[in-house]
Amino acid sequence: MLKSKFYRIFLASALTSIALLPVSSTVARSDANPRENQDSVLMNDVHFHLDNYIQEGIPIGEFLKLMGDKVGRVAIFGIPLQQKWDYFVDGDRSPDYYLLSDTELYYYSFVDAIVATEYLKLSPEQRKRFDPMITGFNPTDMYATDHIKRVLKIYPGVFSGIGEFTIHKEFVSPKVAGHTASLKNEALNRVFSLAGDIGLAVLIHCDIDTNRPAPGPRPAYLDDLKTLFRSHPKTTIIWAHTGLGRTISPRPEHLQYLAEILSDPAYNNVVFDISWDEVAKYVIKDPETTRAWANLLNKYPDRFLFGSDAVAPKTEAAYLKTYQDYAPLWKALDPKTSYQIRIGNYERIFDTARQKVRSWEQKQVSLDSRPALSALTLAETPSFRAAFGGSCSSPLIAGCFIETPR
Ligand SMILES: [Zn+2]
């Protein structure tokens, strides 16, 4: 019993310490000085898949080596959809990508445990370079919000956002088992509301249009997306790839569509990632196109982020490919804009998310109707020990020890 009390005191102390951590000085600074001269960091990466469509990937320690000193921080996640290996269809050809089989994809919630487990293998110092994201929920399920809360409670101190999750995506959406994801589904509204309440950054993949441009003057999903975005002004939303994809090429008006959002204060909560080499190919198609993109980015330097969209790369060259592909864009940008897109905007968004989510986690302990049991249970989980305790090496914790009193 004495031990139980000790755990409770420890937990309250630890979580209070986390909540009071100062937010990085980079938060909300849009005028941060470019520091590439003093710093080898080329970029932060808002879009990285640690695992592929069959939940196989790169150990996080190996990935750290690929990041080296060129990449500062990375938002990491798996892929929420598992490609089924159906022997009746594919025989011995085990498919590891959605385009390699006609069989279905299904939601694989264990992906979040895989990512958390990898993250918790790192030292506290190494963890500062990662922002894990929850992605293993079904966005058509009204219970999706329960999954997100459950993951935060089981793995406190780990996650800063949700995504990348997919609503409409070329070839993928029709393969997903069950009800087709939709921007009009109330389940998705609940997810966005919860993210706003907690402070989780949201990374959403939703194509702007259908595989072939939808008939009519507007892309198929743009206006429904805008309605969703507008309905959640408290939620920080990152629209992946600006809605483009392998076959979703930009209409001539694409930059005007983005400007509709950027110029309207009703969407101040929305930013865009320019991840994926399939997107870079549009941006760098020719000097005139690159100049048009650069003009928009220079006008709104705080609203775009670089991301690799790499999936478990095996080499540094493979990991940095998208960054290198964008070389003409980097040259065309103002230095300040370039810095913000590569580094500064990531820090602003994820420093804020980290602080808010840690604060929410702390409140859950105090709001629990059985605080003693909750605190004890939480403190005894292996993930909590790995995240917060066991030794006093963690910079997050004041008075941090569970079983090794000093
Ligand atoms: Zn995507």
TrEMBL record:
<protein>
    <submittedName>
        <fullName>Amidohydrolase family protein</fullName>
    </submittedName>
</protein>
<dbReference type="GO" id="GO:0016787">
    <property type="term" value="F:hydrolase activity"/>
</dbReference>
<dbReference type="InterPro" id="IPR006680">
    <property type="entry name" value="Amidohydro-rel"/>
</dbReference>
<dbReference type="InterPro" id="IPR032466">
    <property type="entry name" value="Metal_Hydrolase"/>
</dbReference>
<feature type="domain" description="Amidohydrolase-related">
    <location>
        <begin position="181"/>
        <end position="350"/>
    </location>
</feature>
<dbReference type="Pfam" id="PF04909">
    <property type="entry name" value="Amidohydro_2"/>
</dbReference>
<feature type="signal peptide">
    <location>
        <begin position="1"/>
        <end position="28"/>
    </location>
</feature>
<keyword id="KW-0732">Signal</keyword>
